[in-house]
Design brief:
heterotrimer, A: 275 residues, Rossmann fold, 2 domains, 6-stranded parallel sheet, 12 helices, B: 215 residues, mainly alpha
Chain lengths: 275, 215, 235
């Protein structure tokens, strides 16, 4: 059996092992290539930066725990950016499995860094089912859909919610998502109620979102862990996304190598069979 | 890094065990993986119960009805409970009204959203000037957009056979689609790798730190 | 009647929400009616989420009762459901629903552990057991994609070659080392990929797909509202 046939029949567990090594190696031996910025990430950053200090912003945690490696750094960087400008933040989630718990954990974790007070500087509305109904309902009255915050405190008892009643009181919607809720924030909230929407999404969703950015329906876009790393660079607070870029690079090079070797073997064995 | 407490060590080791037990499936299916997988399924299902109890039943039904006197909320509560009739084949017809309200109202929103929020803005944005006056690059981009949108829509139009002019346009569409799907594939690879990076980083940094402190 | 009334309900609910788009809610009562409809939607949808849980409990309980193959694992699934659900629904304070009865039996020091708030049992089980496992399950896809890249991604024809070449280009462009490699050829190359591949070819195709899918979704919505599509009602 020649080398190409042997390679073709290689146990897939060796490939899994190579994949693991391609991530572990740059984690141990850090190189730190600089992260270059894309216009879409800069557009999102500039949109938030241009908002007056102390503006009210809605930040959504529309992702499952499975996507946290990509989306958690986006949420953390967004919170740092907004609180650096002393913005007031209303958070909510449209994800029933874990969304409210993730939102609670991350907002409280970053709030500690900035000394922000719950109820005054930020409120977590939590989750309500049927996201299209929620998105429309918030336009009429936030309190009609969320009579209380996630922990059960009435909105009328929270100082921040005294002045935030509908979308008209919110300056920007920053959506961090790993599913189609981002599409509906754009097509309902931006299209019908005129609220500017920016989004950080997982890499799987990013190609589709370019169409919304080009159409002007979305103000800026972060795509995947690279997008999160770009935003961390813009905010000046490198975190887990920046740390992961070396490993991302090595893994991509490995996959490109595997594709090339696989195709080379395929063509050479095909040629041999013809002969 | 500051010294971890016993409970923090326990939490890190628990997560490390769960990660490694699931990863062990990459070598071979085994009982550790099966156990972790079944616990995961159970916890994920049970999470919904606590969430809906607090956010819907307490916050949207019981408290507004008893504290604010909004008695009319009993009606959606009843419709919601009637949904459970679906689980009993003999009585499943009772759930139809609840389902009909849910599907009808959602369809009403989706109809407008798709027309007003997706089709119109995207179609308008495709009607770009082929001579924007910003140089060759802008003209090329405009051509790519116009030809790409039209040929993609024609490729996915299956009500007529792809022959003649339709066939040629659909062929052009395939080329555009291959480029877009290639880009999509590249991004998908990035997404999957990022998730693995998250796990490896936890094992190296968090679990590694715990091991260092214990040793 | 068993089918007619639901069809009428679907039509009225859908028509209300379509018409309310065109009406100023401050000027006419339909605005209030549509707000009420949206509140009803969120409440009813919440109950729909729990349907699946009841189904899982039923299926697994049956398997455990019959001691069918793998019954021990199904028992663990059941125990996990109750382990997170029960603390999540127990009252948080004496004034909560059922709180006065519960805290007359059990100590009040238990209250921080109950409910769905931060540092509760519910919160802990999700953050330290469920979430790490969810992340790991999806992380395993990276291994599969590497294996598929080696075994299955073949440039069998011109179209597949174009797809693969674009994928390799984008994979290089999206990582710092790859971008640095591309800049060896031309400083503008990453910018051209963003502008013409992502912002040109990709946008054109995605736009076509968005328009096509939205047309399909809109027509399906119309069919549901008009009662032509009834499969959601079941038998």
């Amino acid at each position: 059996m020649d080398i190409w046939q042997k390679l073709n029949e290689l146990d897939r567990r060796w490939i899994y092992f190579l994949m693991f090594l391609s991530i572990l190696f740059p984690t141990i031996f850090v190189i730190k290539f600089p992260v270059e910025l894309t216009p879409e990430a800069e557009q999102l950053y500039n949109a938030v930066e241009a908002l007056p200090d102390s503006s009210v912003v809605m930040l959504t945690f529309d992702y499952y725990a499975s996507a946290m490696a990509e989306t958690e750094p986006m949420s953390i960087a967004a919170l740092r950016h907004m609180w650096r400008k002393n913005m007031k933040i209303v958070t909510l989630t449209n994800i029933p499995l874990g969304g409210p718990t993730i939102a609670e954990r991350i907002t409280r974790q970053v709030a500690k860094e900035f000394g922000k007070v719950y109820g005054v500087d930020y409120v977590n509305l939590g989750y309500k089912a049927n996201y299209v109904a929620v998105m429309h309902g918030l336009a009429g009255s936030i309190e009609s859909i969320f009579p209380t915050d996630y922990s059960g405190t009435r909105l009328s008892e929270l100082p921040l919610m005294q002045k935030v009643k509908t979308y008209a009181d919110i300056k920007f919607l920053y959506c961090v998502a790993d599913n189609a809720t981002a599409d509906y924030w754009i097509s309902i909230v931006n299209a019908q109620y005129g609220l500017p929407v920016g989004a950080g999404v997982t890499a799987v969703m990013a190609p589709k979102m370019y169409a919304f950015v080009e159409a002007g329906q979305m103000t800026g876009l972060l795509g995947g862990m690279k997008g999160a790393a770009e935003y961390e660079k813009l905010v000046g607070a490198p975190g887990s996304a920046t740390r992961g870029m070396d490993a991302q690079s090595m893994a991509h090079f490995l996959i490109i190598f595997l594709v090339m070797v696989g195709n080379l073997g395929f063509f050479l064995t095909k040629k041999k069979r013809k002969v | 890094m500051e010294s971890l407490s016993f409970i923090e060590h326990f939490q890190i080791w628990l997560r490390a065990y769960l990660i490694l037990s699931l990863f062990s499936f990459m070598y071979k299916d085994n009982r550790f993986y099966k156990l972790s997988e079944h616990i995961f399924a159970g916890l994920s299902a049970g999470y919904y119960v606590g969430l809906i109890w607090q956010t819907v039943i307490i916050q949207q039904l019981i408290n507004p009805i008893y504290d604010d006197g909004r008695w009319w909320l009993i009606l959606p509560g009843i419709l919601g409970v009637l949904m459970f009739a679906r689980l009993i084949p003999k009585w499943s017809w009772i759930s139809r009204t609840s389902l009909a309200f849910y599907m009808g109202s959602t369809a009403g929103i989706y109809l407008i959203t798709n027309l007003h929020g997706f089709i119109l803005p995207q179609a308008v944005s495709s009607m770009v000037s082929l001579n924007p006056g910003n140089g060759f690059g802008a003209t090329l981009l405009a051509l790519i957009i116009v030809i790409g949108v039209i040929s993609t829509l024609i490729y996915f139009y299956f009500s007529k056979e792809h022959t003649g002019f339709l066939g040629v346009t659909a062929r052009v569409g395939i080329w555009f689609i291959m480029i877009s799907f290639g880009a999509h594939f590249g991004y998908t690879v990035m997404a999957r790798v990022s998730l693995l990076i998250g796990r490896v980083h936890f094992l190296y940094f968090d679990w590694g730190e715990s091991i260092r402190q214990i040793l | 009647m068993k089918t007619t009334i639901p069809i009428i309900v679907a039509f009225l609910a859908g028509a209300l929400l379509v018409v309310s788009f065109f009406i100023n809610p401050d000027k006419i009562f339909i605005g209030d009616a549509s707000e009420v409809a949206r509140i009803w939607m969120t409440i009813i949808s919440g109950f729909a989420l729990v349907l699946g849980v009841v189904s899982i409990v039923r299926v697994n309980a049956r398997a455990v009762k019959r001691k069918s193959e793998g019954w021990f694992y199904k028992l663990m699934t059941l125990l996990s459901v109750f382990a997170i659900a029960i603390p999540g629904i127990l009252p948080i304070t004496k004034t909560s629903v059922g709180g006065s009865i519960f805290y007359s039996i059990f100590p009040e020091s238990w209250s921080p552990l109950l409910g769905t708030g931060a540092n509760s049992i519910y919160d802990w089980l999700f953050n330290y057991i469920d979430a790490p496992m969810m992340e790991t399950m999806f992380a395993m896809l990276a291994f599969y994609i590497a294996s598929a890249a080696y075994r299955a991604f073949r440039a069998r024809n011109a179209e597949a070659t174009l797809l693969l070449l674009t994928a390799l280009l984008v994979m290089l462009w999206r990582v710092p080392m790859g971008e640095a490699f591309l800049r060896l050829f031309s400083d503008n190359l990453p910018g051209y990929i963003n502008t013409y591949v992502m912002g040109g070819f990709n946008v054109a195709v995605q736009r076509g797909i968005i328009i096509g899918a939205a047309l399909g979704a809109a027509s399906m919505s119309l069919r549901i509202i008009l009662g032509i599509e009834r499969t959601y009602m079941g038998r």
